From TrEMBL:
The keyword Coiled coil applies. It comes from the Eukaryota. Signal peptide: none annotated. This is NACHT domain-containing protein. Residues 272-447 form the Nephrocystin 3-like N-terminal domain. The keyword Coiled coil applies. Residues 120-147 form a coiled coil.
Amino acid sequence: MEPFSALGFACNIVQFVDFSCKLFSSANAIYRSASGAAPAVNDATTIARTLHDLSSRLVAQPTTGPQDDEQNPRGPINTILDDLALGCRSASAELLAALDGLHARATGSRWSSFKVALLTVMKSDKLKDLENRLEHYRRQIIMALEILQSEQQSAVLRKLNGLYEANSRLQADMAYQISDVRAAILNAVAGIKDELSRQDLQTVIGRSNMSSDEFFQGLQDRRAVDIEPLVGSLSNNARAGSQIFVSLRLLKTLRFNSMSFRYSKVAGAHNNTFQWMFHNTFKHWLTSEHPIFWISGKPGSGKSTLMKFLVDHDDIPRYLAHQAGGSKVVIASYFFWINGTEMQKSQEGLLRSLLYDLLRQEPHLIRFTFPDQAQLLDMGYTEDQLPPWERHQLLASFRRLLHRGITGSRVCIFIDGLDEYEGEHEELIQIVRDMAHARVKLCISSRPWNIFEHAFGNDVVHKLYLEQFNRPDIELYVRDKLQSRPDFQVVRARHLEADRLILEIIDKAQGVFLWVYLVVRSLIQGLLNWDRIEDLQRRLRAFPSDLDDFFSHILESLDGAYRVQTARLFQVSLAAPRPLSLLNYWYIDMDEVDEHFLSRMSNLALYPQELAARQGEMGKRLNGRFKGLLEVTTLPNAEPPYCHRVDFLHRTVKDFLRTTAVQKQLVVWSMLQRQDSFVEYGQPPPQTTKFDPYRTLCKSSLAMLKSAPVRYGYLRGPGPTKDLISDMFFAAQQYEMANGASLGPLLDGLQGVILQRIKEFPTQQPGYPWANWGSSDFLTHAIKWNLVLYVRDHLLSTPPSSPLKLHLLDCALRGRFGRNGETTLGPNPQMVETILNTGPHATLDEKARFFAAPPFSAAALQRLPALASVASAGQPLVAPPEMCEGLYSSLMLLVTHNALRVKHDSEVWQGLSALMSSEELASLRRTQQIQAMRKSWNPFRRWFSTRTVAGPPG
């Protein structure tokens, strides 16, 4: 039982024991003292009604959702409470039976006490036994309350300590609330325990032969306390603790691994730069009612650094508070990153990050924002068992929060890099506009593309182009970096031209801070080499003023011995769906010299010392070979080997490497072979073939899974393991599309590694671990990733049974994973046809039916991801086109193979009308009618085929 649920259950037992014992103790007091007062509930009907109500709460409410017993192991308190509840239910049954007897035997009669009344329907020894048992239950509940007070034994206190830790990890604003709940629970437990102990002592004294003086002396410090308010407080705070627990778990589900990666990677502002932002129209905007401020500028001008500076600046909340008029100020931010994961450049990533940022500061609105998810967690679901977040759902929740939730706070949202969003920018612009209203301000940044100029550029007051303002900052940066160096001071003392060198940098920069950074880095390298002033001038004047020309210059200057490795690593970096770890690059390097290295690897994790050595060595290799175009970033909260990620110096580097000319050059370089490396490994040099980055990415990801450290639960939910598996499936998918062949052996190797890890960490969870990642097993995961050739080869070698085939069709129709491993694309007709054409022919006449019913019903329709994104009732039914793509062709295939019949139901056809055009819908109807007619003619055809038709007379 979950600790807070156990606490609430304990409250129910306390109420029953307290009420039942008082019935007997009141009878004792009346019997021994003429001044004793009769109980407040002294008629049989009221007592029976109260007992029935209290006993009905003595059954622990089972959770209706899937359970994770590892999260809530049974402790001593659970055993005590279960035993107590069982005994109390038995005692309650006896008391209620006796009260029924009283009612039948003496309606309207009065007795001097409840106990005297019971003696009319129960034998004295049986009544005495019942009284003794209730007193024993009171002592047992006292012992349970003592456990609840114990730091070492109390699951509730451990749970509260866990809430403190979770609150700290999530940076949520719930510490005071958790502290209040903890104090209230401990106070209520202490008060209830003291009162029950006082009652127990009173019973002992009352049964002894003490005088009245001794009696009062024994109770002088133990005055009676009304236990109901204490039980109410304990029950309410147990409920509050449970709600805090659910809120923090919901907040945790919004987080994703790379959420703060881009922010942490953005360089901080140089000392004393950007101060001019608070002396122009931006400061006025902060205190105005205008909702949007747009920051634009050339590539490399420092937009992201400026946005980070603003997000972190202490004066921003102060200026906003001036306009807020005493309301709380809440600031949230998001940095798009085109070089990052799918999540880092998507609407889902934006919405999850902003919701997380806002709700951790306004945690009381978490349940309001996500009522359905909160209800599932209340029912016993774990975070991993919740349905995955969908874009439409996040958008609706975000609107609910901004427009109906945060009404007493002033909100300011910073969104960097709108141009780095991977999707329809018009749609993103509309979302930004929807966010802005009276209490929500947005500061956004992007390159000056036409679409953003049209949307935000018409307001000449609330926008700026960074290159028009950052010349003083560039001058400050260059002077600080160069003039503070002793070696530059030596040059400056000898040559007046040294200061002109600084002015030349500032003039040539044209507002592009990245160019300045690279030039200064080159000059510092010259100073370390004791360059003369003439050498420094040559360095500067040879430095291309255009970034692309500069990157081309670096590429051409790479050491020829490293060109094969450099070209291959660049291609894999461009192909990867997210920045890879240093260990990934180690294995990519290994694949160059030994393409069979995987077959010689065990599935044993690397020792920490070996892991650190490989990461250190690879970091030095990258630093020496890539001239700073690739750099290593350390993630603060990640574990080895995932904490060291390799990324491009700047987005402009990736843009440059993707140009047609550079791509051709990289392909040529990657096909070169280093003969000596193969001789060293005792292998003949292979024939020169085109390098495939997706195959190499797949191999390095599998090598990572084989060698990365493992721990309990590492296959659960989102995390680096899921990311590696997603990278591998993504690479296998891209390889199939480019080469028309499957990477079957590598995928089988992946399945082998996962099976071994499951043996090392066994679990009872069905479909583990694939159920955590949106599938039911390895094969359905391959279907979700659209690995048509792999699935075909697998089904040809192992033909599926009819039920399995229908299950696979069900999976295929539900859509495909996008680049980030979430269901965002419609079904692939090729996959549907591949499954239909293998194994037994699935028809409507078999017991195993598609979607578990012969017709395609309304319930089946609701299982399509595309329909889940359709607006609610009363709204226009419009589903995202990418989710509908392939649905019509897939349904047609199923209908023509007689594996599907769409039910003649207006609800079904109306739902389908949201997913396909009217022409497609009409075609589907006609095809189904034709199939039905053909099927109805089949018996006649078989009958005619058995008859001999006479020919014409001869």
